Amino acid sequence: MAKLAINGGKPVRTKLFPAYNTIGEEEKRAVMKVLDSGNLSQFLGAWHKDFYGGPTVQQFEKDWASFFGNKYAISVNSNTSGLFTAIGALGIKAGDEVIVSPYTMSASALAPVIYGAVPVFADVDYNNYGLDPESVERCITPRTKAILVVHIFGNPARMDEIMAIARKHNLYVIEDCAQAPMATYKDKYVGSIGDIGIFSLNYHKHIHTGEGGIVVTNNDQIAERVYLIRNHGENIVEPKGIKDVYNTFGYNYRMTEMEAAVGIEQLKKLPALIEERLKNAAYMATEFGKIEGFTPPLVESSSKHVYYLQAIKYKKEILGVDRNTFINALKAEIPSAILREDTPLISPGYVKPLYLQPLYQQRATHCSFNCEKYKGSVDYSKGICPNAEKLHFDELFTHEYMRPGMSKSDLDDVIAAFRKVAENINELKVAASA
């Protein structure tokens, strides 16, 4: 008689897991206060005091800067627009190269392309999944202008080595902290180590404003450029007396007063939400460690991982079936969550290495790698980042079960499902050999 649900057995659990919802009465009251004021946005795309937005936007920025210890925190309407803004603010242009990660959300690598620059993919560290400094060093050419680091899954990259490389070659460092608010590296918040950092406030992040982001920096000149790009800088440079107008043409990357009101309240909740993630992730790492064939992520003793996702290595040579077969069997044992009914909380791999996307395979832009100003040669062939490919296609799986709101009983059901599949692995081996 089949034991595994994928073969007709009874699943470990059918009840949906709790929804991840950080919005409460505090946010409702804050939004209603803005609605009652009738002032839903106060930005002007002109040189005026409202060029910097309304009172709620400016209060949110002040609160964020104070919380993380940055001189400037500048709100935008997404982490994506924050990344684009960062590239522009650093003066990166056509013909330049930016070293990026292949194993992240697509916008991290696309940001240089927006300004006509060329993304060069360095490999990831096999153990913590951030950029591998040795690979970064090998990617540097006379055209390199910046390193765009992603603190993937909430785990800080090896920043001492990356910063040393940047200083050696006079490069900017951009930190994509979309998945890592309150992550620390040697007692410093990520985002505060390089020249500029970007955080996400998208609805599925640690805290959110629906859509939104924050750009942080301690550099006056970079901050000025961020303000210009965020809000129609082409209208501002003349009355403000800015002489170097390169890359100052602006977009509308502005946050609304309602989003900022939500952000103010969400920021207050961040420490408690992070602590719950840490507690749940530690429990699951301990339990995963008891199942032969699973390796929890490496977290350096000097780092604080904040677990946007928990990434686990799967060893086929130990378990005897490939990762995807195991994960498919696991999905049959446990459901997803409320509000995520059709989207599993676990996935084999994360994202396909970005250089394998059609954009890079077909060089499908009018400039960037096709630009006459670009004098280099860039390789996007399969195999350029072996660690990223091995992790994604064969070894890594990521899950969200450590989210706040999950009870110990919920977590135990997840662990029970893993154990059940591991203990009945011969069922999968028989099916695979049939």
Structure overview:
This protein has 434 residues and is α/β, with parallel strands linked by helices. The chain has a domain at 25-266: Aspartate Aminotransferase, domain 2 (3-Layer(aba) Sandwich), CATH 3.40.640.10. The protein contains 15 helices and 14 strands. The chain has helices at residues 25-37, 55-68, 79-89, 106-114, 133-139, 159-169, 220-230, 237-240, 257-288, 316-319, 323-333, 358-361, 386-395, 408-423, 425-433, and strands spanning 72-76, 97-100, 118-121, 144-150, 172-176, 184-185, 188-189, 196-200, 213-217, 294-295, 303-304, 310-314, 346-348, 396-399. A seven-stranded mixed sheet has the order 1-9-8-5-4-2-3, sandwiched between helices. A hairpin with a 2-residue loop joins strand 6 and strand 7 (188-189). Helix 3 runs parallel beside helix 4 and helix 3 crosses helix 7. The chain is globular and about 75 Å long.
Short descriptors:
434 residues; alpha/beta; Aspartate Aminotransferase, domain 2; 38% helix; globular
The gist of it:
The protein has 434 residues and is an alpha/beta fold. Helix content is 38%, strand content 13%. It has helices at residues 25-37, 55-68, 79-89, 106-114, 133-139, 159-169, 220-230, 237-240, 257-288, 316-319, 323-333, 358-361, 386-395, 408-423, 425-433, and strands spanning 72-76, 97-100, 118-121, 144-150, 172-176, 184-185, 188-189, 196-200, 213-217, 294-295, 303-304, 310-314, 346-348, 396-399.
